[in-house]
């Protein structure tokens, strides 16, 4: 049986101010949720960028991670479109979230 696999070696989350302590838990939850999503093939990207995800105050880590995981999953299933729209890059890896209350308040957080 050919097993399909998605491996994430490094995830960079760009989260709104105040989410610094939640970044590790959100990243782990993104990985858990992605593991439950069906894959049509195995994927190997040096870098995959996704569009910003809106984050509302009071949302749980699971809700935020679910939105990020869904966005990653969509990008994986539209790689040609992603490259054409500039969302795919070989130089940077970024998963970003935007604070709906104040989009300018963002902090980059690297997860190893």
Strand content: 15-25%
The secondary-structure class comes to alpha/beta
Task: Give the overall shape, derived from the CA principal axes.
Answer: elongated
Written as H for each helix and E for each strand, in order along the chain, the element string is: EHEHHEE
Strand order of the largest sheet: 2-3-1-4
Q: Your description of this structure?
A:
The chain has a 4-stranded mixed beta sheet, with helices on one face. The protein is built from 3 helices and 4 strands; from the N terminus they run βαβααββ. The protein is elongated. With 112 residues, it is an alpha/beta fold. α1 packs across α2 (61-76). Residues 78-102 have a biased composition (Polar residues).
């Amino acid at each position: 049986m050919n097993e399909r696999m998605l491996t994430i070696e490094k995830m960079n989350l760009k989260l709104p101010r105040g989410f610094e302590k939640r970044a590790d838990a959100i990243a782990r939850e993104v990985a858990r949720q992605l593991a439950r999503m069906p894959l049509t093939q195995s994927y190997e990207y040096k870098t995959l960028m996704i569009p910003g995800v809106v984050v509302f105050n009071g949302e749980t880590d699971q809700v935020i991670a679910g939105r990020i995981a869904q966005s990653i999953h969509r990008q994986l299933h539209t790689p040609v479109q992603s490259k054409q729209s500039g969302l795919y890059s070989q130089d940077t890896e970024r998963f970003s979230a935007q604070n709906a209350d104040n989009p300018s308040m963002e902090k980059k957080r690297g997860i190893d």
